[in-house]
Amino acid sequence: MKHFILFLGVFFIPACLPEKSENIISFDKERIIISRQGQSDITLAVEIADTDEKRARGLMYRTDIRDDEGMLFLFPVNRRASMWMANTPQSLDMLFIDEEGKITQIVEDTVPFSREEIRSEKSVKGVLELKAGTSEREGIKVGDMVEHSFFKLEKQEEKR
Prior knowledge:
Elements: H1 2-11, H2 13-16, E1 28-35, E2 42-49, H3 52-57, E3 69-83, E4 92-97, E5 103-107, E6 118-131, H4 134-138, E7 145-147, H5 149-159
Parallel strand pairs: 2-3
Antiparallel strand pairs: 1-2, 1-7, 3-6, 4-5, 4-6
């Protein structure tokens, strides 16, 4: 009987415990271009958060964001976005992007682990999260354009 209880403890109890959730979600990686006013373009490698599950996870638990990386949140409808830093140990810059790909608002140096909402002032189709300080270092400003097929498709549909 003693061996049976030990068997249960070793094999079945760990199977009932929740998996580490940060390992479950996989993000596609793509390159985007930011066309800056009066400066040369910059290219970034971003992960795409295009489902509710991916948008909810975002950059939570990440401590290894490089200067040329980020995450692009894409929303199915134009709306006012609400973001937060829960479970996010690294400060970020958040760039709010309209349906044409124009950056309409930048929130720099967010507070790690904060549950305070960071809201867009206008309706947006996307949010680009970058390592804190990237916007200032690269000279990214409101009015600059994010080039990604998601936004180009929106512009093409408007012309029809």
